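Memo to structure team: turn this sequence into structure tokens by end of day. - J.P.
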Amino acid sequence: MALHVSLVSADAEVWTGEATLVIAKTVEGEIGFMAGHEPVLAILAEGQVRITQTDGTKVLANAQDGFLSMEGDNLTIVAGNAALVA
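Reply from structure team:
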């Protein structure tokens, strides 16, 4: 089972796709998400969002100033500033 992830900044969609694991930094520390995770609403802290896609490849993004929301198997990360790491 996959997790549907949407990472957006204030002005653009940064990354959307299916993942098996997402790790993000909140003001309370790092948190990991997999399909079936309980609902969460948290304040995003400045740091990296690490996404493991269903094929095993990794996507890294820097994000800050926003929030994340987990509902069902949908994880939405809304950041004031976010960009993929090349």
